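Colleagues,

For the teaching module next term, I've prepared a clean inverse folding example: a structure given as tokens, and then the sequence designed for it. I'd like students to try predicting residues themselves before seeing the answer, so please don't circulate the second half yet.
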């Protein structure tokens, strides 16, 4: 099998995917057409921007999110995107997906609870149709302030005792514009979240921010690091940050195309996957925003394999490290590991020599 086909066949685990950033062109066009039918004239310019821009600066990406959010501002759209995104990951042979999204309150359209209930209902429906297990992380957007974070945690707590959704909500994510706000201000919220039993995935060192990153890591609240681009000293981090991450053995969610397209990593061969792989540190390959960065999890595996000359054994280990880092109970992880291992065994020896 050629490398890309092989990556498509791998049984994969996706741990870092933002719902609204994961919309395929087909889904975006479907939503734009629905808006047009409702006589919304904004849609024409949104369509133009979506189809005709190819740059990926931070400013452009923020603008993209504004457009995406404007076409997903109602519960019908939220249901559609959740089902489409899950279906697309399932078609890419993703066996387990941790999808993250920021609960949104849009006056006269939806409350945070209605938004999240709709995402969860749609996830349950999508799981019935495909062979994929999905869990949800509620995202705290660092640009929205601490009050908003408390209300998101409050909502997450309401799901703890829910008979169906209780097992689907597995943790919280902290994301948003890395230049906005200070993560240290959010530590009391994260402390309370941990007390309630939520696992925490935190975007850290996505841009250079040593003081903030060290304070958050030293809190001992983080279960997984999103990006972690500026941690080791070669990339502008520090020996101290590197030591803390090693000591806590924190898995890194690595988003190759996202980092390269946004320019936080100089080029493919400079991606920090190379550094952490040499250290034998737990890493998981993820998409971040497969729609915004025009990628898929298989393509991310392919790009990493090409850049770092990964062997078949290394590709298999990367699939299994996704299982190890999942926010699942030990029993569920064991079940997932068996399923993934079985498919990996059937692929052994099938990768054409690179
Ligand atoms: C930080 C990001 C992100 O939550 O509306 N988001 N935050 N760094 C990134 N790397 C590029 N990509 C996405 O999905 C979109 C939201 O996810 C966060 C941003 O807050 C963005 O608005 P949801 O489903």
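(Answer key — instructors only)
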């Amino acid at each position: 099998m050629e490398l890309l086909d092989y990556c498509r066949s791998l049984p994969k685990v996706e741990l870092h995917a933002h719902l609204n950033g994961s919309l395929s062109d087909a889904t975006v066009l479907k939503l734009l057409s629905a808006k047009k039918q409702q006589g919304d004239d904004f849609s024409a310019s949104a369509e133009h921007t979506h189809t005709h821009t190819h740059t990926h600066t931070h400013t452009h990406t923020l603008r993209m999110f504004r457009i995406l959010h404007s076409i997903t501002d109602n519960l019908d759209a939220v249901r559609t995107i959740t089902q489409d995104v899950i279906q697309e990951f399932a078609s890419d042979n993703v066996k387990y997906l941790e999808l993250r999204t920021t609960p949104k309150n849009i006056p006269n359209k939806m409350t945070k609870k209605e938004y999240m209930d709709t995402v969860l209902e749609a996830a349950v429906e999508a799981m019935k149709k495909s062979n994929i297990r999905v869990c949800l992380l509620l995202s705290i957007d660092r640009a929205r302030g601490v009050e908003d974070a408390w209300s998101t945690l409050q909502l997450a707590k309401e799901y703890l005792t829910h008979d169906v959704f209780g097992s689907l909500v597995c943790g919280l994510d902290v994301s948003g514009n890395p230049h906005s706000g200070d993560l240290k201000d959010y530590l009391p919220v994260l402390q309370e979240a941990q007390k309630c039993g939520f696992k925490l995935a935190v975007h850290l060192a996505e841009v250079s921010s040593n003081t903030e990153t060290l304070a958050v890591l030293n809190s001992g609240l983080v279960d997984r690091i999103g990006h972690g681009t500026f941690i080791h000293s070669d990339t502008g981090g520090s020996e101290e940050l590197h030591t803390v991450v090693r000591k806590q053995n924190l898995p890194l969610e690595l988003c190759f195309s996202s980092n390269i397209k946004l320019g936080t990593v100089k080029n493919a061969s400079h991606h920090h996957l190379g550094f952490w792989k040499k250290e034998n540190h737990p890493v998981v390959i993820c998409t971040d925003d497969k729609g915004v960065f025009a990628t898929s999890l298989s393509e991310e595996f392919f790009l990493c394999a090409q850049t770092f000359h990964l062997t078949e054994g290394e590709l298999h280990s990367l699939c299994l490290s996704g299982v190890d880092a999942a926010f699942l109970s030990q029993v569920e992880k064991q079940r997932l590991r068996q399923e993934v291992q079985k498919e990996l065994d059937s692929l052994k020896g099938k990768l054409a020599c690179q």
